[in-house]
Amino acid sequence: MGAGKSKKHRKKQRIAKHVIEGQTRKKQEDAEKQLLAASEGDGETSTDVANDESKKSTKNTKTKDPAEAASYLTLWNLDRNSESTTKNWKFNKNTQSWLLRHMYDFDKVSKSTFGTLVDYVCQGGDKTRLRVEEEAKRRARRYKEWEKKQPKEGDAEQDDVADETKDTTSPSPDDEEWNQLDDHDKRKEYKRARKVLDSLKEQQ
Q: Helices (DSSP H) in the chain: which residue ranges?
């Protein structure tokens, strides 16, 4: 036990005053909402109100600011290229995951940020490089397959054949999103995938 203290004499775990106040305030708000719902007589029960609140809280999740991710990469690049011994950059798994997830999204990752991201990936771990390489290959293949299916100028007959040979499997949400892109954006995504593959090939 240590120092002659028995189980009865252990310190009671303390809860900060502001935490207790917050919990009390939350309970009061929930009770008020239930009373309002009951007085309006709209048929909502307390469980419906609680379910609505839980849905709202999941919708209000924090999204990463693209500028924050860009500054993360800029700081990494500065620390990598600087001669000083003090390092300002610190690894952040959440930011890295966000960048890798959105690296083909032109609105979230700008052209200059993407160039730094490619360097970052090339310097990263083997698992990360492998995952990024597989994703880039998949996107490049998808574009090439789409490009082959596009009718060439003056080929009206091929258009009829392409309609007959369309794949009837249901596309994934990523493919549905990709199908909504215009030709120019599809080409931009392909160029990004090729840049990733070329850069990773140079590192080997």
A: 17-40, 46-59, 66-81, 93-101, 111-123, 126-149, 156-164, 173-179, 183-203
Structure tokens at 163: 């309609």
Type of residue numbered 145? E
- Distance between CA atoms of residues 155 and 158, nearest Å: 6
Q: What string of DSSP letters covers 85-119? A: S-------HHHHHHHHHTTT-TTTS-HHHHHHHHH
What span, in angstroms and rounded, lies between the C-alpha atoms of 200 and 119? 9
Tens digits of per-residue pLDDT, 15-27?
A: 888 888 888 888 8
Of 133, 105, 108, nearest in space to 121 by CA: 133
d(CA 51, CA 43): 14
The candidate with the shortest Cα–Cα distance to 37, out of 47, 27, 28, is: 47
- What is this structure's pTM? 0.61
The confidence score (pLDDT) of residue 27 equals 81
Whole-number pLDDT of residue 21: 82
Mean pLDDT of the chain: 79
User: By mean pLDDT, which of 13-27, 53-67, 152-166 is the weakest?
Assistant: 152-166
**Contact at 8 Å (CB) between 89 and 76?**
yes
Are 123 and 80 in contact by the 8 Å Cβ rule? The answer is yes
